[in-house]
């Protein structure tokens, strides 16, 4: 083990060994070592004795941690040793107190059986971790929580902000129970105000524009087109796996759906063409680069809006992907398709909508045949719009009386 008077320049110029690794100790700073590996990696550590045993504390890698910063870290660690403490144990406790570590433990211990755990993870990863990843959870206060929630409200997502409030409230309440934090910063904090239900749906002309624009946007565009043709929710299609497709039918288990009930979707001819045109790159039907699940939805939506504006010589009034589901519902009813059939297409629960209350208990008919016909009619209608043809007349598909 070599010992040298290290300088910023000498650290930069150290040549890696031809094999293995070597420690170079900083003379004048007992125990401070720069470990150099044959691949060129350089990492700072502090070698010390505690409880009669020699231990090593990892300080960080070079050049992210400079020589001066490594010496500062060494001073703090050495002070702990002089007080009889083990800096490795201190480092472990510090890491365990970081919000990201607590969040991971909460997901594993409290949310493992939550059917919506994937949605909870997406919410936290998108709207919380970027701001709190490097913070101790016991240093996060009510103002920090309000800042995170208000950002979601301000971007026009009050429903998601309410969901985030509920998730964070449970996470902090669990943390109080585990003795990780002393108090829940969301205690007695009102939910964000909820906006009235959206009524936005796309006109025929707008729908045709979106379908055409989506055709130029790869996997994301295919998802948008399939959402239009099936009325499914975004993640039901975005997370679609090849083994959930049986010929011309999509079969979704209850754990994949918001209401926990399974759903079968009979694909119309144009919907089947979209799926058949997707290359098999893995288990998922739709994936981004490196076979990863589609993400960055806001950015992808911006690309779609830009393409629509290019075709249309101007943008459409604000709309979101969920409006496609409402567009299908309104469009099908305009085609003369009965409400009960539309609700079956949308996969509303057996106790929701027109099948709520006593009717839901005694109404056992599944409307599968009518739903398949409705999706076929809707698919033909949408494609006629895309191709600039006048949609043909559709015979009414009513629910059984």
- Placed side by side, the strands forming the largest sheet appear as 1-2-3-4-5
CATH class of the largest domain: Mainly Alpha
Biggest pleated-sheet summary: 5 strands, mixed
Q: Rg from C-alpha positions?
A: 29 Å
Structural class: alpha+beta
Coarse morphology: elongated
Summed over residues and divided by their number, the pLDDT gives a mean of 87
What is the helix fraction of residues, given as a range? 40-55%
Number of helices: 17
Order of helices and strands: EHEEEEHHHHHHHHHHEEEHHHHHH
C-alpha termini separation: 88 Å
| Proportion of residues in β-strands | 5-15%
- Count the E strands: 8
Instruction: Identify the CATH homologous superfamily of the largest domain.
Output: Intergrase catalytic core
CATH topology of the largest domain: hpI Integrase, Chain A
Which CATH architecture of the largest domain would you pick?
Orthogonal Bundle
Low-confidence stretches: 355-359
Number of domains: 3
Account of the protein in words:
By secondary structure, this protein is of the alpha+beta class. It folds into 3 domains: 2-85, Double Stranded RNA Binding Domain; 99-177; 204-386, hpI Integrase, Chain A. Helix content is 47%, strand content 11%. The protein has 17 helices and 8 strands. The strands form 2 sheets. A 5-stranded mixed beta sheet has the order 1-2-3-4-5, with helices on one face. Strands 6-7-8 form a 3-stranded antiparallel beta sheet. The termini are far apart. 27% of the residues are buried.
């Amino acid at each position: 083990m070599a010992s040298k008077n290290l300088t910023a320049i000498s650290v930069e110029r150290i040549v890696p060994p031809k094999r293995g690794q070597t420690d170079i100790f900083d003379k004048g700073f007992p125990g401070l070592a720069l470990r150099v590996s044959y691949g060129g990696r350089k990492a700072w550590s502090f070698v010390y004795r505690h409880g009669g045993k020699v231990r090593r504390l990892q300080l960080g890698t070079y050049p992210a941690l400079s020589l001066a910063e490594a010496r500062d870290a060494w001073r703090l660690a050495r002070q702990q040793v002089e007080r009889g403490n083990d800096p490795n144990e201190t480092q472990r406790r510090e890491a365990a107190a970081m919000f990201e570590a607590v969040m991971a433990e909460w997901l594993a211990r409290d949310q493992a059986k939550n059917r919506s755990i994937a949605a909870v993870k997406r919410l936290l990863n998108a709207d919380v971790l970027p701001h709190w990843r490097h913070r101790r959870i016991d240093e996060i206060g009510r103002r920090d929580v309000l800042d995170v929630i208000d950002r979601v409200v301000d971007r026009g997502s009050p429903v998601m902000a309410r969901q985030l409030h509920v998730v964070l409230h449970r996470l902090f309440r669990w943390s109080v129970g585990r003795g990780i934090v002393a108090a829940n910063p969301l205690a007695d904090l009102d939910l964000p105000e909820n906006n009235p239900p959206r009524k936005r749906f796309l006109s025929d002309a707008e729908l045709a524009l979106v379908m055409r624009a989506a055709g130029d946007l790869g996997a994301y565009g295919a998802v948008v087109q399939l959402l239009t043709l099936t009325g499914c929710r975004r993640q039901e299609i975005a997370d679609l796996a090849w083994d959930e497709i049986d010929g011309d039918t999509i079969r979704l288990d209850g754990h994949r759906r918001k209401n926990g009930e399974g759903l079968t979707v009979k694909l119309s001819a144009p919907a089947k063409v979209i799926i058949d045109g997707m290359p098999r790159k893995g288990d998922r039907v739709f994936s981004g680069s490196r076979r990863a699940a589609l993400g960055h939805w806001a950015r992808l939506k911006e690309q779609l809006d830009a393409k629509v504006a290019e075709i249309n010589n101007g943008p459409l009034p604000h709309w979101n992907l969920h409006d496609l589901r409402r567009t299908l519902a309104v469009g099908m009813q305009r085609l003369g398709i009965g409400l009960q059939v539309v609700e079956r297409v949308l996969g509303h629960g057996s106790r929701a909508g027109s099948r709520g209350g006593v009717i839901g208990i005694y109404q056992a008919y599944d409307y599968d045949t009518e739903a398949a016909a409705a999706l076929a009619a809707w698919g033909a209608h949408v494609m006629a719009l895309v191709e600039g043809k006048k949609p043909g007349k559709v015979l009414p598909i009513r629910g059984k009386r």
